[in-house]
Design goal:
With 230 residues, this protein is α/β, with parallel strands linked by helices. It has one domain: Rossmann fold (3-Layer(aba) Sandwich). The chain has helices spanning 15-25, 34-44, 49-55, 62-75, 89-95, 110-121, 162-172, 188-199; strands at 2-4, 79-83, 102-107, 128-132, 150-154, 178-182, 205-208, 212-216, 224-228. Helix 4 (62-75) runs parallel beside helix 5 and helix 7 packs parallel to helix 8 (188-199).
Length: 230
């Protein structure tokens, strides 16, 4: 494991990792789409504690939403799967990159789904589908294809079986998939899932950003784990 305590990539020899750390994770230049993300956060995510308890999520941070935007912008996935939707802001952040990207956002309950649809009505992207996560079906059955190029999992609450979630994710990745897990140190389940993914040989590079875990499946990369300040 290599520890990178800043965003300048000192000590990182992998061109892939160095570029990602310096040009994506550590990027400070604003993008035009940040304005809409910030507007939606102010309008819909300054909610009461009662609403937050129903959404079962932390209030999304702009810092994380901007990072999601930059990651999707870098890898240009065709199909994005969001699991355990956080109320819609991350869906918008990813969909804003390119209208040709299909974002499928899975919700755990009707309250989250309805809240997300409210956010969608006030946002510009039209390339987002919102659906209920069906515990009786696998994630693959909900995809238009057999795999997802980019997977975002909000794992900061204890509502899933670790082994099953691990199998579900592994079942839909391809050799170029990117997996983002929010809340990897939030509880024992999230940490256990993160550790299982880190050890899987199909996942070549992993980065621990403290609260966010990044996984890259590019088979041309050497197996390596980084701890990066964010």
């Amino acid at each position: 494991m290599r520890k990178v305590r800043n965003r300048k990539g000192f000590g990182v020899h992998s061109p892939f990792a160095y570029s990602l750390i310096t040009q994506v994770i550590g990027e400070h230049n604003p993008y035009y789409s940040y304005k809409e993300i910030k507007m939606l956060k102010g309008k819909f995510f300054s909610y009461s504690d009662i609403v937050q308890s129903k959404l079962r999520i932390k209030r999304p941070s702009l810092k994380k939403m901007y990072l999601l935007y930059r990651l999707v912008n870098r890898f240009q996935p065709r199909c994005v799967l969001e699991v355990n939707n956080n109320g819609g802001l991350s869906s918008v952040a990813m969909a804003l990159v390119d209208s040709s990207i299909h974002v499928l956002s899975l919700c755990e309950n009707e309250f989250v789904k309805n809240y997300t649809l409210q956010v969608m009505e006030k946002s510009s992207p039209v390339n987002i589908d919102v659906a209920m996560a069906d515990s009786g079906k696998g994630m693959r059955s909900l995809l238009t294809g057999e795999s997802a190029d980019f997977i975002l999992l909000h794992a900061g609450f204890e509502m899933y079986n670790v082994d099953r979630m691990y199998r579900e994710i592994i079942n839909i990745i391809n050799p170029h998939s990117v997996i983002v897990i929010e809340g990897i140190h939030s509880n024992k389940q999230s940490l256990a899932l993160w550790n299982k993914l880190k050890s899987d040989e199909r996942i070549r590079v992993t980065m621990d950003l403290l609260d966010i875990g990044l996984c890259f499946c590019n088979e041309k990369l050497f197996k390596q784990h980084y701890k990066v300040s964010f």
